[in-house]
Amino acid sequence: MSPAPGLLHGRLGLAASRIPHADRHGLLWLEYGKLSVEDGTLRFTAAQSETLDAGEYAIPYQGVSMILLGPGTSLTQDVLRLCARHGTLIAAVGEGGVKSYTAPPMGQGRSDVARRHAELWADPKRRLDTARRLYAWRFGRILPHRDIETLRGIEGARIKESYKLVAQRFGIAWDGRRYDRDNPGAADLPNQAINHAATFVEAAADIAVAAVGALPPLGFIHEDSSNAFTLDIADLWRVELTLPLAFGAVRAVLDKQADNIEREVRKRAAAAFRRDKVIPKMIDRIKELFDVDDRGGNS
Question: Where along the chain is Mn(2+) bound (predicted)?
Fold first, then answer.
């Protein structure tokens, strides 16, 4: 990432980081360097990498909602203190956001999203209505059925058809979805690729859920899992992102353009997340789902 046009020389950031902090869309990616505090501001000492030239960069932390620390980064305790004071989130992530290692809720200052999330989830009717809204986004129309098990059955049938269609698009032989949790490596190449792609897209959703302060365990379609809501959000991108990532990587391996399926899916996912602004789009979807406009004052 190179310094954005219009920012002061030596300052690292995004044009989006100038918007109000409450919008939480100022995602700043840092890789291969050290983040520290100097003269009361954040400073990133960067090594040469594909995304950033070597040098010293002042970080406009008060205009950045979330700092994503990728591979090869370290930080001092003062960074945590300063960011906590100003409500700037810090997450340790894999390249491009393909993994989410930790994203502590460091003083976001607002509870709008969490309260709205809890209200919708706690009321059985509103919970079902929210699930139907999620399905409507995925299928392009509101389904008339009001039973969650029926909706899940329809979803299963449509996803099976999507597997076939996307596989055909990439010229991949498809024998059905198979996954052995006790031995994930035993699956065929397409299924392995889908497992990896799903994991990476879920990591992006993890980051988005943490960024807005939603409640991961309270899912509307998924249940029981500690990240059920994260899975709800990740599934919104299953057909348009997860499956193309997986089958595209399989095609590359079969064509001898890549030799490791996990590495190829990860590389493609990291590029897609940045190019298509996947995490900001997920953030927008979550806010739209809860009808929350958090640009007002603190709650």
Answer: 155, 222, 235
